[in-house]
Amino acid sequence: MTSIPLADAGALRPAARRTLLVRAVLGAILLALILATVLVSRHPHTQTIVALPAHSSAIVVLDVSASISADTYTRIGATLSSLSRSTGRYGLVVFSDQAYEALPPGTPAADLQPLVRYFTVPPTKGPGFAPSFPPNPWERVFSAGTKISAGLELAHTIAFQDKLKKPVAVLVSDLDDDPEDLPRLVTIMLALKRDHIPLSIVGLNPSVADTALFKRLSGGAPIVQAGTLGAGPAPRNRTPFPWTLVALVLLVSATLAVYELWGPRLDWRAP
Q: CA–CA separation, 171 vs 175, rounded Å?
């Protein structure tokens, strides 16, 4: 026997239906919160910050050579998107085996936003259609080679031609340079140091060997993974406190408590 017959059971049916509905809603909310907690816990949103001196004139030197894989395109898009949401002003030099000035120094950060689409996979059109990056304006201009010196030399030239105050070069690259470019690269790195133009390096999944090479050439400057560029006193890596995860865990706990308090098991005892 699984139930107790009651003469006035009919009068309890509205309350039973209401309780069942509330428990079902609470159960659905609880399931959604647990799913959200699992998803958030899988992505800690670690941010990498490359600090730029206050009131500096930054020139972003962006590597779009053939050595940049599709996996790192999204990192480029994230970096440009982060820059576009800032309040700064930037110049943009795009390079492969040669370089050209895409945006002059002092360009409002928001003007970088139209470039983000070239490094963002569009939504899938349907089954059987593999998503791919849209064609960019540089595919037919640059060869497959990579000469990082070309991008840095142009940034150096722009800094002097435009008489920039407190110029800063920000290299965004996988650092996979042509070995024959090394002499020119050493020369321009020394020129940047001589002319007091700081160089920040944002790596796009660089190899250990390339990372070591650029650290040596830059005098030990930190090389961070593609992320957020912003003003600040010094480069640093940080993992923000997971407030979203904590809030979801608290909501799950509160929902469980309400679920149990609303519909406790029937209990009785003899008089």
A: 9
pLDDT for position 155: 94
**pLDDT computed for residue 236 by the predictor:** 41
* Residue ranges of the chain with per-residue pLDDT less than 50: 1, 44-49, 228, 230-239, 267-271
Cβ count near 114 (within 10 Å): 10
- Answer left, alpha or beta for residue 195, where phi above 0 means left and psi between -120 and 50 means alpha: alpha
DSSP 3-state assignment of 170? Answer: strand
Report the C-alpha gap between 247 and 231 in whole angstroms.
29
Model confidence pLDDT, tens digit, residues 171-204 = 988 888 888 999 999 999 999 999 999 898 888 8
Q: What are phi and psi of 191, to 5 degrees?
A: -65, -40
Could you give the C-alpha distances from 188 to 66, 124, 148, 192, in angstroms and in order?
22, 43, 10, 6
What is the residue type of 19?
Answer: T
Burial group, residue 128, by CB count within 10 angstroms (0-12, 13-18, 19+): exposed
What does the pLDDT read at residue 232? 46
Alpha-helix residue ranges (DSSP H) falling in 134-200: 148-161, 182-194
Q: Measuring CA to CA, which residue among 205, 222, 207 is closest to residue 51?
A: 222
Q: Return the DSSP state at 179.
A: G
